[in-house]
Amino acid sequence: MTQLAVTGLTKAFGGRPVLTDVDLDVPEGSLTAILGPSGSGKTTLLRIIVGFEHADGGTVTLGGAVVDGPGAHVPAERRRVGYVPQEGCLFPHLTVAANVGFGLPRPERRTQAIGDLLDAVGLAGLGGRYPHQLSGGQQQRVALARALAIKPSLVLLDEPFGSLDANLRATIRADVKRLLAEAGATAVLVTHDQDEALSTADRVAVLRDGIVAQCAAPMDLYTMPADPELARFIGDANLVDGILGDGSVETILGPLPVQSSGRASLNPGPVTVLVRPEQIDIAAKNGTHGLDGRIVAYGYHGHDAVVHVVPELEPGLPAIVVRTLGGCRLPAGSPVTLHARGPVLAWQR
Amino acid sequence: MASSQTLLRSGPPGGPATPPAGLARRAKRPVFLIAASCLVAALLATPLVFLLFEAQGAGASAVAHLIFRSLTASLLWNTIRLTIVVTALCTVIGTGAAWCIERTNLPGKRVWEILIVVPLAIPDFVVSFGWASLWTWVQGFRGAVVVMTLAVYPLVYLPVAASFRAADPGQEEVARSLGVGRLRTFTRITLAQARGAILGGCVLVAMVMLAEYGAFEILGYQTFTTEIFGEFSLSFSVPAACALSLVLVALSLLVLGGEGIAARGRGRVSRSGPLVARNLPPRRLGKATLPVLACFAALVVLALGVPVGSSIYWIFQGGAHAISGVTVPTAALTTAGYGIGAAAVDTVLALPLAMLAVRGTGRIRHLLERSTYLVLAMPGVVAAFALSYFTEHYANGFGYQSAPLLILCYAIMFFPLALVGVKASLARAPASLDDMARSLGQRRLAVLLRVTLRLALPGLAAAFCLVFLSVVTELTATLLLIPTGAQTLSTQFWAYESNLSYGQAAPFALVMIAIAALPSYVLGRFFNRSGNAEGITIT
Hints:
CATH superfamily of chain B: MetI-like
Oligomer: heterodimer
CATH class of chain B: Mainly Alpha
CATH topology of chain B: MetI-like fold
Strand content of chain A: 35-45%
Strand content of chain B: under 5%
Radius of gyration of chain B: 26 Å
Number of strands of chain A: 21
Number of strands of chain B: 0
Distance between the termini of chain B: 36 Å
Shape of chain B: globular
Strand order of the largest sheet of chain A: 7-8-9-3-10-11
């Protein structure tokens, strides 16, 4: 069942359109990430769903009830949407326990439920502290506990891990995913970090130019992006020209099989082909059949290495990006041969 | 997990058949806030409106004739030369002291920090009394320069010290690393960073020079304010008082406008990057330590020691001409009553405007906030004169010389102080926390009580105290508007002082110093703390 449905949503600020036509469905119990570059309107969309902003057009439906639509606007305090903002936004004058209990009716503010929630987020015994006595990660955990305390119909997380350092981020991300799952909560996570979106969410909606360009499971999004631009946005991508023949496509990297799912809609002829960097093997030039080139740049990341290779015969083409596990021991300038592995995705050119 | 049922229970009322989309969906304008703010702005403008009204009544040609005469020129000369000399001296003393305290290894910083700010709490007319009652050479221009400089230099010191604290120390290090010498770094970076603060301090000093009455009266130095006071309350020459008031208001507007133009986009204190609690290592004074200490000691003796010492001296010395008057506790009680009244009125009046200023956007907000600055251009004597004469002659005596009118006058005069305080306090309760509270199911009123006002409370109390303290040390408007038979600390002091009953006047002076000094210190700490961008800590 769909817990949150957004249809045809538009919003402009001072004549500048931010959201032009947003459609989004969030199934109950799922964790959906909204992924977009800074300034793409992610936060605006979130603020409309919570009820802080009014949409200019379109509707927002929560659990089957229209909360923002023509002639209807349910104020934020009546939506039961838990909100975890970027900077935590804890109430500085209240203790951790009081923060968590803030949204509860007075008699429930001092019950064991608060302690249990703090336990769940790993802050047992810290209920008496004030927000400024907590670390950034702890503050985010309190913010999450506070949002969950009101038993929300939906939890919205606005780049909640942005201010944390890299090590902490991974831990908290995993914790939050587990907590949300335990609570059975439907959640929407806004982020500009594709790694975070792909690793945390069940579904990822890419927000681009004021619309949702694609909404799919992380793996589908990576392997079957809707268009070349999306392919480039999600992960590294080599977009090469090709000529589609019968079942395979002829490219600079040789003939490659085309993914069956997208093939039906394609006509034989010129196409743009997506070859992910990990689909290419690299070896010192050895005279075998493949694309000969020269290494122009080399980025070492420990677990893998990203190598940029310029084709020998056509040095004007953009460098081909290759990812190798563990790194390749060839210095920049080395002549190499590339081999691609299919199947690949293609779009009509 | 809350299902759709829970949502529906607390969910939207009614179906889709509701008002036209365009109207219903636009975010609500804070109509109530804007209306309330407009009312407050109108109230604040009343003295100015009355003044123009009265000038009209006195006849435009008569007023023009009174403006363009040699007296105006000589008053202008007196006011301007004093303002320039005192402002210059205050800039040097205030900036120098701020730099020594904030940026060097001066011994005993924490003590000096307090001692050199305390003189701000001493009413100018008490400083004047302290000096003039001991030495006869403290008279006229020379006396005015000495007394006023010592009384008001903290007005430059405080903002400049704050800006030194807030400034990015990295800029000085970068300048040095780029090969700029120490002295040039000081002028090009340090002073440039403090420029806005220095300018702001100078404007405050100039405004005090324009508005001060008591100190100049004691020193026998004639300025617009003393002349307006004399024309109105002694010679009962309303057209003359009107004419001079108009010139004085114009002069004040000139100072404020000049500041607005000079300060535009300059000397901003900004830190790039994350705020870190890192400061430059203090400059070592070395051989200069002793001379600098001597200067600080001298400043404290002159600005604090003389007025306090003189008052104590006169208590023991007694005075020749004993006259009757109210006792200190009686006067203190009256003063407190007026002070609490005015402070309460001001805190409430400042709330809507401050809310608009901190939370709102748009042109109306800007215009409204700006309009309240007009009050700054109304020296107390002008406001009091306008209100007093208006109630007496045009309102059939309604409210004339009544406590409410005096409180109203105080409230108008000190509104800018309250606004600054209330704005600072509301800034401690950011709108994002309100949003947060609403998403947790709290209604607007609950949000206001549980979050906004709760966070703003310490600041509101500070704004209240600020106004209260100003009332305690106010003399000019009080003399003009005080109900018959009542005496405040300042008016009773004034009555004794004018009669040369120094021994009787001195206890009132000391009580005013005591009431004003301690809370001023606490307030100073509060505003310093809230001025820092270190986040909110409530202990």
